[in-house]
Structures are given as C-alpha cells and as structure tokens.
Specification:
Strand content: 15-25%
Oligomer: single chain
Shape: globular
Radius of gyration: 23 Å
Largest sheet: 7 strands, antiparallel
Number of strands: 22
C-alpha cells in the first residue's frame, strides 16, 4: 500500500508535496520520495524512512520547481531497499518520472515483454518501474517526433490499460509539460483531484486521498474515474478523458475498513460514515450472537476501529470507553516483517488501562483480524488487566485470502482465518466469544445499501473473488512463496546497494 501525490502550482511546490506526504503517511511508512521539475530539470530526493526523516531543510532547498510528484511506500512487491523507493525515472522519451500505488498482477509477463519486444531494461524488482516503462513505451509509440499533446498522452494511457492488469493509481510527470494521473479500469486503488486559486492563477493537485487536498486548501473536484486519465499542464490547463474500453467502479473495500483516513472521501463515500454504518451492522449481529446483556463495556483497539466501536456501543446501549493507550510511534504490525518483530511491537504499541478491565465483561472491537497475532496478545493483555470475560468483535469478515492489488498482506497460510472456522479462530486468539461482520452487511454499510455509484467492491480478501478475473491458483501459489516470512527475511538479508540512476540529492 502506498500514497501518491502530484501538484502543478504557480510557485515552488516542494513544501506542499511534503505536507501532502505527511498527511498520507498512514499509507506507507517504509520509504518516501519527492521529485520536482524546475525549468526542465528534474530534482529528486528519496530514501527509506518516514517523510519527516527523509527530508531536511537542505533537501527541500534542493527541490525547486513549480510542479512535482511524491510518494510514500510500503514494499508490497520487491524488497524494502532504498533503491526501490519512488518516484522512478526513465529518460526516454522526453524524461518521465512516475509514482504508483497498487500491484500489477501480470508484472512478470510485462517484464519479459519489455525486454524482448520493447527493448527496455528494468533495474529493480518493483512493478512500479515496469508501469513507468510501459507508459514510456506507449508514449514513444504515439510520438515519433519531438512534439506531443494531450491526445498522444491519452492514447498512451489507453495502451497501458490494454497491457497492464491489476490495481494501480499512478502519477507521472514530464519535464516542461505537466503532471499526468491515471487509475486502473476497475478503480481498485483510490485517486482524487482538486483545484485551488492563487494570486497567479489556478493550481492543481491529485492524491491518493481527499484529506491531502483538504489539508492544503484545495477544493476537491472529484475522484479520477476508473480507467480515466487526468492531465495538469505546467501552463494551467486541465484535460480529462476516459481511456479504457470497459470500466467499472470496484474499489477495494479494505480501504474503507482499515487503510483510508476516516476524514477522507473515496468514490463519493465518506469513510467516517461508512465505519459508523459498519458499527451499526456489527451491533445487531453481536446482539444475536452474544447478547448485549453479557457485555459491560465496549473498548476499541486504537485507532481505526474507534468509529465502528462507538457506533456499536451506541446501538447496543452499552458503555463505551478507551481502554488502551497507544504509542503512536510504532508502525502497523501486520505489515511488519518477521513474527518476532510483530510480537515485540504489539507490547510496545498498546498499554491497557487496568481500571477499565478489572472485573468486567469486555467486548474488544477491531477493524479486522489478519494474522491474529495482535488480537491474541491483546486478548491476553485484557485478561492480565483483570477482565472477567473477553469477547472480540471484528468490523470486517474473516480475512481468508491474500490481497493481490497492492496491500502487503501475509501469505494465505499466515492468515489466521485461512482454513479455520470462526470458532477455531476464537479459540486461537483466546477469546470467550468472537463476532465477525457478515460480508453482505459490510458491503451494505460501505455502499450505503446500493445508494452510492459503486455497484461492486473488490472483496477478494474475504471471498477469494478477484475483480480482474486473471488471478489463478498458480499465481496465488507464487504469491504464497514470495510473501511468507521466510522469503521476506531472505530478501532483506540480500538488499542491493543503491542502483545507478537520477541524481539523488543527499
């Protein structure tokens, strides 16, 4: 999972890009990067770490220019070497840089085609570099001379859609021309754009989530449609066109469950309100399965589940309270490499307030249960704090299948619900009772019972149905081999040195 941003301004945009990455930091804590363009020259700074650690004052001084793109990263594909931090750059044609959120499901096939047919070399294991080179090749095919216009770019994006499969939301920049953004034909990963007025004219911005626009006082225009491309030229023009022959709105429902900030709007759905509706649905099932009379207090597992837990408690008429204090400087645990690191981080991340647990029947509410490791430790922490009974409720259904569209979830064998019944999961995490959200209720909650423009969500992590229709058992077997903890540890032990490329300031 990653966050992307692109801005065309009327003055220096480095601070705005940095501020946007800070707001999008929840989407990626492994690496950060910014590339700007000043009078046709590109300037780059990228490295592993949080945005606040990657950029200092001197780095910002070295990022001049009135347009640029930025990226925060979790290493879904490839390794976590700083060589794979984004944006990426290719010099032909024209010089193009790109940052990408998502995952290409036919990356291996595309990499072979790029080498054999397009005669392009890929220097990392990142599918983002593949996407950049596909886009560059398609643009070169459209422009046999030095000049090009928006129509050539739209045709190039059409070529990308015809060749690439999977989920992708990308921002690209061409020196002396502008910023281009496009979204896969299923709209799996989010992308939104907006405009703000300045003293010198309009400024335009595209980002993974609307909260980045809000923070920088851009007026949200709308989401980039699935399959659509949006162009901001350096001289203030805005062009949009649908570039896919067939498209549908099928956003990843896990964005609403967990990843997106609650103050974001995705495909015209308010994430906060979706989570409130999740809590109401979950409350009704909790009453059926456990009975509200068994519960003395509802306690959220911070932070994502807080909205759903508040709503659940209100519907049940049960007291809601905060029972855990969170250390906000520890990253998300289900994405951390290695079981030992995850176990250690949970204890560092949360500390119970004993008085809220002692002698009570507690209902813990979380947004989802992925590996189960965190849930198991939290249940035990509640018992150690003196809880009489510990029940557990998940605002999402059982996560039984891997995500293939850009969320670095574990291999299927490492998902606690994979191959287990709900009762077996309950026993494994050590709870006295477990309530999972029903998938139909989750879809109704996020989709406002069919009132939104979204007619289908990608719910593959829950039901194994992948919206692109190209995910085979063989592909999932390769994914299993690539994503398990042993494979990740092996890659981390063989990190390459920084690759040769565009000058990286600092």
């Amino acid at each position: 999972m990653c966050g992307v941003v692109g801005i065309v301004g009327t003055g220096t945009v480095n601070q705005s890009l940095y501020d946007a990455l800070q707001v999008l930091q929840h989407r990626g804590q492994d690496a950060a990067g910014i590339m700007t363009c000043d009078h046709g020259r590109l300037h780059l700074r990228k490295d592993n770490g949080l945005a606040r650690d990657v950029f200092d004052n001197q780095h910002m001084i070295n990022l001049p220019g009135a347009m640029g793109i930025g990226h925060v990263r979790y290493p879904t594909a490839g390794c976590s070497s700083s060589a794979e931090a984004q944006p990426f750059y290719v010099n032909s044609p024209y010089g193009i840089c790109l940052a990408h959120n998502g995952n290409l499901t036919n990356a291996d096939e595309l990499k072979r085609d790029l080498f054999r047919e397009d005669r392009r070399h890929i220097n990392t294991d990142s599918d983002s570099e593949i996407l950049l080179n596909i886009f560059a090749h398609e643009l070169a095919e459209q422009t046999k001379n030095l000049s090009f216009d928006e129509n050539d770019i739209f045709r190039a994006v059409t070529g990308v859609h015809q060749r690439c499969r999977g989920g992708y939301a990308a921002v690209a920049m061409i020196p002396g021309y502008g910023v281009i953004a496009f979204r896969d034909p299923n709209g799996i990963r989010p992308l939104v754009f907006g405009v703000r007025e300045s003293e010198n004219g309009p400024e335009m911005m595209v980002a993974s989530e609307s909260v980045a626009l809000d923070t920088l006082d851009f007026d949200r225009v709308r989401d980039v449609d699935p399959g659509e491309a949006v162009i901001f030229t350096h001289d203030g023009n805005l062009f949009t066109r649908q570039c896919a022959d067939e498209w549908q709105r099928s956003p990843c429902i896990f964005e609403f469950v967990y990843f997106a900030r609650p103050d974001s709007i995705i495909d015209d759905i308010f994430v906060h309100k979706a989570r409130l509706r999740m809590g109401k649905k979950l409350a009704k099932k909790t009453d059926r399965v456990l009975g509200k009379d068994k519960i003395d207090v509802v306690i959220p597992i911070p932070d994502t589940s807080r909205t759903s837990a508040m709503s659940l408690a209100h519907v049940l008429g049960v007291r809601f309270t905060e029972g855990f204090i969170k250390n906000r400087y520890i990253g998300r645990t289900f994405i951390m490499p290695g079981q030992t690191a995850r176990k250690k981080s949970v204890r560092q991340k949360l500390n119970p307030i004993d008085v809220e647990f002692k002698g009570k029947n507690v209902l813990l509410v979380d947004d989802s249960i992925v590996r189960g490791t965190t849930s198991r430790q939290i249940v035990q922490m509640a018992r150690d704090a003196g809880a009489r009974k510990v029940y557990f409720a998940s605002a999402a259904p059982p996560v039984r299948y891997p995500n293939v569209y850009g969320i670095d979830m574990p291999a299927a064998s490492e998902l606690v619900a994979h191959g287990r019944t709900e009762q077996e999961v309950c026993d494994w995490i050590g709870a006295d009772g477990l309530v999972y959200q029903d998938l139909e209720d989750l879809i109704d909650a996020v989709g406002k019972k069919g009132k939104s423009a979204v007619r289908r969500f990608d719910t593959s992590v829950f039901d194994g149905t992948y919206v692109t229709g190209d995910v085979t058992p063989e592909y999932l077997d390769r994914l299993e081999a690539d994503r398990n903890d042993d494979a990740k540890s092996s890659r981390e032990n063989q990190r390459p040195a920084n690759v040769i490329g565009l000058h990286n300031d600092g």
